[in-house]
Write a structure and sequence with these properties.
This protein is of the alpha+beta class. Helix content is 25%, strand content 27%. The protein is built from eleven helices and 28 strands. The strands form ten sheets. It has a six-stranded antiparallel sheet with strand order 3-4-6-7-5-10, covered by helices on one side. Helix 10 packs across helix 11. The longest helix has 19 residues. It is globular. One of its GO terms (cellular component) is nucleus. GO terms for molecular function: RNA binding. This is Probable RNA-binding protein 46. InterPro entries: HnRNP_R/Q_splicing_fac (IPR006535), Nucleotide-bd_a/b_plait_sf (IPR012677), RBD_domain_sf (IPR035979), RBM46_DSR (IPR044462), RBM46_RRM1 (IPR034434), RBM46_RRM2 (IPR034435), RBM46_RRM3 (IPR047837), RRM_dom (IPR000504).
Length: 472
């Protein structure tokens, strides 16, 4: 690397040459005793640290760091992240030019240290006016496989995936809400490692690979949500899956009260799954053991403890992560081998005077349509959530991913005191219309059709988020 074509600024805004950068990194290595190696577009500091014995830290010890200034390096970053605990490995993603790529992964020696880093360093002002984002990072070992023939059984899908990919541990298949003898047209394939899943994903690229004569959809699945043990020890809500559409909340409550009358506080059912709230945790745990695998109205149910979801992040999860009621929805994660979680930090916007969370930032660029460019017909539903820029599209996408009937919009109007036509949409989600909310309508009127529909879709997504404050 030559001094004349590489320069960076330090925290005081002064230009640093490549020689000064190298000197600062060497000083850091000498001070800490850590090694540093650059390979495959990333620079690894430690991993393991000096004197480390035994296996690497378990899952949950790594955090993702985003929005790092491009001219900031380990000599400035490592001391900041050491405030939360001992670093096992610091991986800074690098450009060929010598700048960093704006994000890094920090693995600590204990989960508690990673959680502390998120608490004290998320939205930390790392330079004047520059705020970094820090969130949990998970190696993803699970793929979403879509467009599977609905008559295929779990065993048939498992056998086929083992034939075409290596390292398959299990497949997760959900029965159709309407016909329990069929699957929902998709499955989740669990692999023994992130590397095995990444290799399988590349092999199964849509358009180049078929299963049972069908072109399949393949992408990263949402990693299982990590909830700390202390929080889970307080949970007194059960998640019940694989219910019949016709099963009522009263029936579920009666069945769960059988083993001990009066222990169920309330039941919230959405389509073919439900959340059963208990007065006491001890009764919830006992009921889970007794009721798991039981038959209700002809369906064998699955019962687990529900995982609390942060209310403040619910909208962001729906808009950016496509969270399904079972937290099993399709996700894309950029990373080492495109499978690491990367979150976004976005400001809120105002829609017609109402303060509303913004949709994901979509890269709005145009590229020349060159002669000979090959075009492939695709469905909107094969895209990732990041390609969608409106709540209307997200709501439609959300319903599709959950195997729900598309939402229905009904337009109403009135006249304002100054003679303007004001509009509002009522949204019906047929798949949950039998629940406590049959439709959703904003309490604000709009002057344009587009704003009215967007506002109604936002309200509906927010409500669906509040209905799923617990996940599988």
């Amino acid at each position: 690397m030559h001094e004349e074509n590489t320069a960076a600024t330090n925290g005081c805004g002064k230009i640093r040459s490549s020689t000064q950068n190298e000197a600062a990194l060497l000083a850091l290595m000498e001070k800490t005793g850590y090694s540093m190696v650059q390979e495959n577009g990333q620079r690894k500091f430690g991993g393991p640290p000096p004197g480390w014995e035994g296996p690497p830290p378990p899952r949950g010890c790594e955090v993702f760091v985003g929005k790092i200034p491009r001219d900031m390096y380990e000599d400035e970053l490592v001391p900041i992240f050491e405030r939360a605990g001992k670093i096992y490995e610091f991986r800074l993603m690098m450009e060929f030019s010598g700048e960093n790529r704006g994000y890094a992964f920090v693995m600590y020696t204990a989960k508690e240290e990673a959680q502390l880093a998120i608490r004290i360093l998320n939205n930390y002002e790392i330079r004047p006016g520059k705020f970094i984002g820090v969130c949990v990072s998970l190696d993803n070992c699970r793929l979403f496989i879509g467009a599977i023939p609905k008559e295929k059984t779990k065993q048939e899908i498992l056998n086929e995936m083992k034939k075409v990919t290596e390292g398959v541990v299990d497949v997760i298949v959900y029965p159709s809400a309407i016909d329990k003898t069929k699957n929902r047209g998709f499955a989740f394939v669990e692999y023994e490692s992130h590397r095995a899943a990444a290799i399988a994903r590349r092999r199964l690229i849509p358009g180049t690979f078929q299963l049972w004569g069908h072109t399949i959809q393949v992408d990263w699945a949402d990693p299982e949500k990590e909830v700390d043990e202390e929080t889970m020890q307080r949970v007194k809500v059960l998640y019940v899956r694989n219910l019949m559409l016709s099963t009522t909340e009263d029936t579920i409550k009666a069945e769960f009260n059988k083993f001990k009358p009066g222990v169920v506080e309330r039941v919230k059912k959405l389509r073919d799954y439900a959340f059963v709230h208990f007065f006491n945790r001890e009764d919830a745990v006992a009921a889970m053991s007794v009721m798991n695998g039981r038959c209700i109205d002809g369906a064998n149910i699955e019962v687990t403890l529900a995982k609390p979801i942060n209310k403040e992040s619910t909208w962001k999860q729906h808009f950016n992560d496509q969270i399904s009621p079972c937290s099993e929805s399709l996700l894309g994660f950029p990373s080492k081998e495109d499978g690491h979680q990367k979150s976004a930090w976005k400001p809120a916007v105002r829609l017609n005077g109402q303060h509303s969370p913004s949709p994901p930032e979509v890269e709005r660029c145009m590229y020349p349509f060159l002669p000979g460019t090959k075009l492939t017909p695709i469905s909107m539903y094969s895209l990732k959530s990041s390609h969608l820029s409106s709540a209307v599209m997200h709501l439609d996408y959300f319903c599709y991913k959950n195997n729900w009937v598309p939402p229905e919009y009904y337009l109403y109007s009135t006249t304002s005191q100054d003679g303007k036509i004001l509009l509002v949409y009522k949204v019906l989600v047929p798949s949950i219309a039998h629940g406590s909310h049959s439709y959703f309508m904003p309490d604000k009127l709009c002057t344009t059709l587009e704003d009215a529909k967007e506002l109604a879709a936002q309200l509906t997504l927010l409500h669906l988020g509040n209905c799923t404050l617990y996940s599988a």
